[in-house]
Structures are given as C-alpha cells and as structure tokens.
Write a structure and sequence with these properties.
There is one protein chain. A hairpin with a 3-residue loop joins strand 8 and strand 9. The protein has seven helices and nine strands; from the N terminus they run H-H-H-E-H-E-H-E-E-H-E-E-E-H-E-E. It has 200 residues and is α/β, with parallel strands linked by helices.
C-alpha cells in the first residue's frame, strides 16, 4: 500500500514533526517509554524511523549499537538530521529480510499495522533478534473507528489532511500470532493504542 505522506519530501518533513507534538502520539510514546528495558551495552533495532524518537531514547539508555529500518528514503533523510549516530537501512516489513546481524532489542512504534502479511513480518522480527531478545511494539487500537471510515481491511487516519491507510488486524489475531513466536510479558490496551512487550 502506498502512503504519500511517507514518500514525498514535503509531507515526510511535516509528518516527522507532527508525530512528535500531537497528543495522540505523545500518549503512545509515554506508555512505550515506560516499558523500555535496560539497554546498557545492547544492540537495538528500531522499525520505522519517523521522528527518530526511539533511536534517540535507545541512545539515552546506553545502547551500544542502534539500527533503524524504514521503507521511506525521505523519512530516513529526516531522521539523519537529528540522529546521525544510527545505522539506517531502507527495508520494507513486507519483504523477506536477509538477516546479517542479530539484535538484543527491537522497538516497533506504530508499524505492524502496515504489514500485509503479519506472519511474515513477525517472523522477520523474530529472526532479527538474538535468543531471549526483547520486542516492544505499539499499534493504533484496532477497535477504534477513526473518523467513521473503518473498512473491512483498512483504516484511514487523517494527518495534516493527508490520508494514511493500513491493515486493521483484530487484537485477537495479533495476540495469537505474536504468542506463536514470543512470550508476551505485558499488554496495554486503552482507548487509542495497543502495546505489547515480549521476549523471544
């Protein structure tokens, strides 16, 4: 699926700023930050580099190596401006990854709902982690009907008047597929967001 907000320079720059300042994202970030494990001396993977929010947080938590995957070259360029210490790779969660190095921790903030094949994406993540690696992710609460535009497979969010479309997987399916590969340690579901903290 194609979301122009991530693939044009002007919109990517606007989105990069937007997610760091609006209440919806700030609430998600507060909850996610409270679940970040001890990263001293660990290698970390950030899925989706928009805002470079979590890569910067990983650095504050003393991670020794930080890599960020994003399918948008425009967002990667924006992230480099504020987090040039990160190793960026242009990758799509809908492709099969060739895994070179494994990580101790993976953070995926508002990413999994862009997966067209949840099993494939979760397998990519599992294969990217070391034994007992930790995985923390968030998605918009699938039970919400944003702007009254809920469809069978897609939800549309309006950000700066631009539509963002993604797959609306039921919470039960997400939990089922995650539990096949990880031990779910913590699950938070509120009005706006679903968050899971897992271990391999």
């Amino acid at each position: 699926m194609e979301n122009q907000i991530y693939t044009t320079k002007k919109l990517a720059k606007s989105y990069f700023s937007f997610i760091q300042n609006n209440n919806y994202n700030l609430q998600e970030q507060s909850l996610m930050k409270s679940l970040i494990p001890n990263l001293m001396g660990k290698s970390c993977l950030e899925l989706g580099c928009a805002g470079a929010i979590y890569s910067r947080l990983m650095r504050k938590h003393s991670a020794t190596q930080i890599t960020s995957y994003d399918y948008s070259s425009e967002l990667i360029e924006e992230a480099k401006k504020v987090a040039n210490f990160v190793n960026y790779e242009q990758r799509d969660i809908n492709d099969v990854w060739q895994i070179k190095n494994k990580f101790d921790f993976c953070c995926a903030s508002f990413i999994l709902h862009y997966s067209e094949d949840l099993k494939l994406t979760l397998r990519n993540i599992k294969d990217s982690l070391k034994s007992n690696g930790e995985f923390l992710f968030s998605i918009p609460n699938p039970q919400l009907n944003y702007d009254g535009l809920l469809e069978i497979k897609n939800i549309y969010l309006k950000v700066n008047k631009e539509k963002i479309t993604f797959n609306n997987y039921p919470i039960s399916l997400i939990a089922f597929e995650v539990a096949k590969l990880f031990t779910i340690q913590k699950c938070i579901v509120n009005q706006d967001v679903l968050i899971m903290k897992c271990k391999g």
